[in-house]
Amino acid sequence: MPSNTLPLIIISAKDSEQAKLLATELINNKDDGAEVNGSAQENFTWRLQNKYYSANVRILPVGDGDTVENDVLSLAEAHIIYIAKEEKDLAELAQKRAANVNNAEVEVYLLLYEGSKTPSVLATWACNNHYEVIPLKETASSHSDDEEDDPEGPFKETYGIERARDTLHAHTWTGLERIDIPSQLQSLDGLTLSSEDEYIGREDEEEDLNEEQMVERAEAFAMALETVLHAQASRGEGDDEMRRRRAEEAVNALRRALGPDFDWL
To answer: Has residue 157 been placed in a domain?
Structure first.
């Protein structure tokens, strides 16, 4: 897919340099590669890759006062607002930066705050405007939940830039390539069942999966269940639109876990 048609992540910050620094931090982990493409508004091509899929996306840094053309906005699938700790009038500032994607059908909305705890005025704005707010300096030790995370549990909580990265990985990007379908099931993708015998035949195919493949399938279900539990824990937050978006994310996660089996369940 040509780079100028890749799905887009727009980062809105005080200036483009600040947005670029956040983009660099976001893609700076050992599992992801990035290329920097020069342009008037420098943008990054980020290859997201995990156990389940790979996808190429562009990150476009945007500063206050910059404009984004409508043909570029049409490719936007995620919007990130970055607010530094020293900035003032936080709700007004967030609203100003949110205007960068007013005409876009964005599916992932993140507000990244530089501090360890989100100011209440910013948390309220994020809730009212369907943004997930993530304090970048928050850690497990600074988290205020009564129950501590279980480091050995299947649903490890993440914080800061890692949480933002995980949220972007959970999105179903346009043009993604599935890599989590066991080879025994690849040939079944897209088929529809016409009899009970075909259903039984597919069950036989699944019985042939080796232990490693079964573990991968279980991990996919664990990831999907984490998304469902997150949606359930947040069910009282936000309006109908936010709750609908969380439900869609949960369904998409389950679809990825079920793979080609989803169509005939």
So the answer is: no
DSSP assignment of 181-198 equals: S-HHHHTTTT----SHHH
> Is 200 found in the same domain as 109?
no
Q: Are 175 and 55 in contact (CB under 8 A)?
A: yes
Query: What are φ and ψ of residue 134, in 5° steps?
Result: -130, 115
135 and 217 within one domain? no
Name 31's Cβ contacts closer than 8 Å, sequence gap at least 6: 49, 50
Share of the chain above pLDDT 90, in %: 35
Separation of alpha carbons 159 and 157, rounded Å: 7
Highest mean pLDDT among 184-188, 221-225, 241-245: 241-245
In a domain, 234, yes or no: yes
12 lies in which domain range? 3-141
Whether the CB-CB separation of 256 and 53 falls below 8 Å is answered with yes
Q: Report residue 75: phi and psi, to 5°.
A: -95, -10
Q: What is the DSSP letter of 52?
A: S
pLDDT of residue 34: 46
